[in-house]
């Protein structure tokens, strides 16, 4: 089993999720999205895998950048919102776990175990 994990090591929830994956013996490819932000295309694929239509669903709307950039404005295009996430990766909600075409924002961290059970079976515990 291998997953991609969009990780912020400074975030306690992100560290908790990583510990859960490691405890289950799941091979993890860490994605340091703050140092190397995903491209617009990668973000678009993530949104599709997450079943999210509006990029704001994947944004940390309490971040200062969200307010400063006026990203709540309804008239902003999808392209504008995705570009803002690339330019300001702190806006991207975390942690995100990707396995094949499935993805999950593992926040709160209690969402991760049932998702893993559904994907890999309870034997992955």
From TrEMBL:
Q: Please give the CDD domains that the UniProt record associates with this protein.
A: ArsC_ArsC
Name under which the protein is recorded: Arsenate reductase
Entry keywords, A to Z: Oxidoreductase
Q: Which family does it belong to?
A: Belongs to the ArsC family.
Q: List, alphabetically, the PANTHER family matched.
A: ARSENATE REDUCTASE
The top EC class is: oxidoreductase
Pfam families xref list = ArsC
Q: Name one GO molecular function term.
A: arsenate reductase (glutaredoxin) activity
Keyword Oxidoreductase attributed: yes
EC numbers on record = 1.20.4.1
Q: Which NCBIfam families match?
A: arsC
Catalyses which reaction(s) = [glutaredoxin]-dithiol + arsenate + glutathione + H(+) = glutathionyl-S-S-[glutaredoxin] + arsenite + H2O
């Amino acid at each position: 089993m291998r997953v991609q994990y969009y990780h912020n090591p400074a975030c306690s929830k992100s560290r908790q999720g990583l510990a859960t994956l490691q405890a289950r013996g799941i091979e993890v490819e860490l994605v340091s999205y703050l140092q190397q932000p995903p491209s617009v295309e990668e973000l678009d694929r993530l949104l599709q895998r997450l079943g999210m239509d509006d990029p704001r669903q994947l944004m940390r709307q309490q971040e200062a950048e969200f307010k400063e950039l006026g990203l709540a404005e309804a008239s902003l295009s999808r392209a504008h919102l995705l570009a803002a996430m690339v330019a300001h990766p702190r806006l991207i909600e975390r942690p995100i776990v990707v396995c094949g075409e499935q993805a999950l924002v593992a926040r709160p961290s209690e969402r991760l175990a049932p998702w893993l059970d559904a994907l890999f079976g309870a034997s992955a515990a």
